[in-house]
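Lab notebook, bench 4. The sequencing result for the construct came back, and we need a structural model before the next group meeting so we can plan mutations. Quick request posted to the team channel:

Model the 3D structure of this chain.
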Amino acid sequence: MPYTIGIIEINGERIEYMKKTNNVLSQLRRGVNGTAIKETHAQDSLVADVSPNENIPYSDTQERIDFVSDGSSALIGPLDFVPSKSNFGSWTASTIPADYGRCDTIEIFVGGKRLRKTPLTVYDEALGPVSPGADKEIDAEFAVDGVNPYIRLTEVPTAGTRITVIKRTGTTWYDKGTTTATTGVTLLENSTPISKFIAARTTSLPE
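Done. Here's the predicted structure in token form:
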């Protein structure tokens, strides 16, 4: 039986295997890529093949823009694009204006430190003896309004601090047109055989 490396995922746990005989996987390495090791997996749990040969080739492009803080303004820009405001997840803020929100298409580094784009709940012993009663929420470290080409930092950096904006741009795949290169409809939005194949196809584990 030839040896290979395959990866399956069950209930969030990734498991590497080196050998497959019929339906039996062996020579396992559990908890791959930092995933939590489950004590048991329930019968009939969904098993997904996430081996390298099952990945669709894809990569984002990145654009880097540098600024230097003037020590007085929390707004960074202007940028040559308007950062999009995400509607994903909840957003609570005590110091951030209500019309601002999270942005998932950029990363911000201030003085080499990567800023957090989501709020964070932490325990504060000054508020009480136990969590969650003594928890407090710390605002995200940057936000955007989705309208203007600026990024708002929650804390103003000291003057002279370098601020780096990394913009990630993904590739959108479109359905092929009959007389044009595309129909203008993304694969996610249509029900062509190829889009169904990508979204719902099952695989045979590698031998």
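Residues 1-55 form one domain.
Will bring this to the meeting.
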